[in-house]
Specification:
Blueprint: H1 3-26, H2 30-63, H3 68-93, H4 96-129, H5 133-141
Helix pairs in contact: 1-2, 1-4, 2-3, 2-5, 3-4
C-alpha cells in the first residue's frame, strides 16, 4: 500500500467516526455520541502522532530541516486538537449547542486540512522520501495513540 493511500484511508476512517458522533448527538444519544467522539478523537490523535513523529520527521530529515508545509500542518494539528477537546467536553456535558458549534468548526477545518495533505503533502512526501517511503509507512503503522488515548 502506498503511504498516501494508507493516510487517506485513515482520514476516511476518522471521518466516519466523527460523522457518527454528530448524528448521535443530533438525535440526543449523548452516551453513544460521547463514545463515538472518543473513538474519533483517539484516531485523530494517533493520526497526528503518525504524521508528526514519523512522516514529518522523515521529510524534514531528507530536506535538511523544517519546511513550510510540515510547519503549517503542525499548527493546524494544534488548532484541531484544541477544538476536539472542546467538542469532547461538550459531549460529556450533553451541551448540544456547544457541541454543534465546535463540531461544525472542526469538520470544516478537517476537510480543508485533509485536502491539503492529500493533494499536496502526501504526494510531496512520496517524492521526497522515494525508496524510503515503505520504511516510513511501516514506522507509522506502529504508532499508538498518545497519552490517555492509548488503544
Amino acid at each position: 500500500m502506498k503511504l498516501s493511500a494508507y493516510l487517506e484511508q485513515d482520514h476516511k476512517r476518522c471521518d466516519r467516526l466523527f460523522e457518527q458522533a454528530q448524528r448521535q448527538a443530533e438525535a440526543g444519544g449523548w452516551g453513544e455520541a460521547a463514545a463515538s467522539f472518543a473513538a474519533f478523537h483517539q484516531g485523530l490523535e494517533r493520526h497526528f502522532a503518525m504524521e508528526e513523529a514519523v512522516l514529518f520527521a522523515a521529510i524534514e530529515s531528507a530536506r535538511g530541516g523544517p519546511i513550510g508545509p510540515t510547519q503549517q500542518m503542525r499548527l493546524e494539528h494544534l488548532d484541531m486538537h484544541d477544538l476536539a477537546e472542546q467538542t469532547a467536553a461538550a459531549a460529556a456535558r450533553r451541551d448540544a449547542q456547544t457541541f454543534a458549534g465546535a463540531a461544525e468548526t472542526l469538520r470544516i477545518m478537517l476537510e480543508q486540512h485533509n485536502l491539503k495533505e492529500e493533494r499536496v503533502l502526501y504526494p510531496m512526501a512520496e517524492q521526497i522520501l522515494g525508496a524510503d517511503t515503505a520504511r516510513v509507512l511501516a514506522d507509522m503503522q506502529r504508532v499508538e495513540a498518545p497519552g490517555d488515548l492509548q488503544c
